[in-house]
Amino acid sequence: MTNGRAAWNIVTSMNDGEALNMGHAAHGDHDLRYDRADEFLEVVTGHWDSWDDDALVVDKQSGLFAHPDKVRRLDHKGDFFRSRGPFTVPRSPQGHPVLIQAGQSGRGRRFSVRWAELVFVVYHSIEQGKADYAAFKQQLADAGRDPEKVVVAPGVYTVVAETRAEAEDKVAMIDRLPKEIDCLSLLSEVLNVDLSTKPLDEPWSEEEINTWTGAQGIRDRILRVKGISNPTTRDFMEISHRGTFRDHPRFVGSPKDVADGMEEWFANRACDGYVIASSHVPGGYEEFVRYVVPELQRRGLLHKDYRGTTLRENLGLERPRVGA
């Protein structure tokens, strides 16, 4: 339908509410969810590859729709899934949709190393970005994958105006908008625990925290930054900045200021590109396109035309071979 312009953001879900939608009583064990996701990807990619690229004939005169020997059943039988196939439609124009993943825990990174073609990461400084970027690329190489064939893209906010003073005024107004309840609610969602059951400044025990089944990457970062095993809810709120416009790095200022910051990260190997998040809508994305894109293009850092017709081509990713 999109002629090869689609991607799949692979998420193992975060909380009990999502589990209930899928017929489960509660959110599963963190590592077991990734074990299940590994097998799910084996099934999905197996079905995507159940047609050869040249399987379709669609010859009305002979009545031949597709070469029978170029369409296969999967016949998958695993610990979590049984799936016969073959898939009901031929391969996508880009082979298969681009696989995006955002796991930040140790198990999540191992999943990304195996499957991801674009990794959405949360880096909180250029120093952390450079270190984590290098470590992840080395993991890819150790797994036998080409590190240059996997795109690492941190989420960032950009607040831009014609002058730095205007942008700083704008960001000061934006920072007044979030409320404490926003952060508390969104943290409870992602960590899969009701944080309101304790006063904000009462510590959580190590035993309690170890039972949380939500996003371990966020949990582990708070424990690492705080340097203790029993942080309070306020610690989680202040370090994660969940529900604010500080949970990703921010580039604030004139078009030159914002482009300087983005170029610094890119040139110093802290990323391969970015996921642009908007601190305000409408307006945030339009301002980025109006002010920052021309400056990046002037520097030769952003294309002026598309490389191809598919998302995969435009990300510089190879078309996957059947069975690869």
Could you characterize what this model shows?
The protein is an alpha/beta fold and 324 residues long. The protein folds into two domains: 7-156 and 255-314, TIM Barrel (Alpha-Beta Barrel); 180-240, no CATH class. The protein is built from twelve helices and ten strands. It has helices at residues 16-21, 30-48, 106-115, 126-142, 164-175, 180-191, 206-209, 216-226, 233-240, 255-267, 284-298, 311-314, and strands spanning 7-10, 56-59, 64-66, 76-77, 82-83, 98-101, 118-121, 151-160, 250-253, 275-277. Helix 6 (180-191) crosses helix 9 (233-240). The two termini are 24 Å apart.
Structure at a glance:
By secondary structure, the chain is α/β, with parallel strands linked by helices. The chain has helices at residues 16-21, 30-48, 106-115, 126-142, 164-175, 180-191, 206-209, 216-226, 233-240, 255-267, 284-298, 311-314, and strands at 7-10, 56-59, 64-66, 76-77, 82-83, 98-101, 118-121, 151-160, 250-253, 275-277.
